[in-house]
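Sample intake sheet
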Amino acid sequence: MERAGAARDLALGYVHALNAIDEAMRVAIPSLEQLADVLGLARSRRISRSGHIGTYSYTVHGAGCRFVSGNGTEVDVDFAADGSEVFDVWRLRWYGLSLPEPVDVTDEDLRSAVRSLQPLLAEVRPGWFSVAS
């Protein structure tokens, strides 16, 4: 039960961190309608593909972006075609390992934890999850 609780807390922590990043980005870039707009800004060269916005460093990659907070916590997220934030177990594990006090849980425990958090989280395609709207 302890592992399951740690995995669940990790998934909830990731969602909380993602929400904090979204809020910080909207404060720093008032024209941002959704976090996924960072991709368009980078592609149009209105912002660099990597740099600092607010209290976060960021690196745009492929279909997503990796954000790193001042304490080194990493949140890597991809964006679906509609701009929604999507993530997989690998991103959750990486987030957990980057915490000031690292949390290492198995992929199996993370998958179970994320699925237990439905309807808060939705599986948008096999192995990929999003915060339900």
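Comment: The mean pLDDT is 93. DSSP finds four helices and seven strands in the chain.
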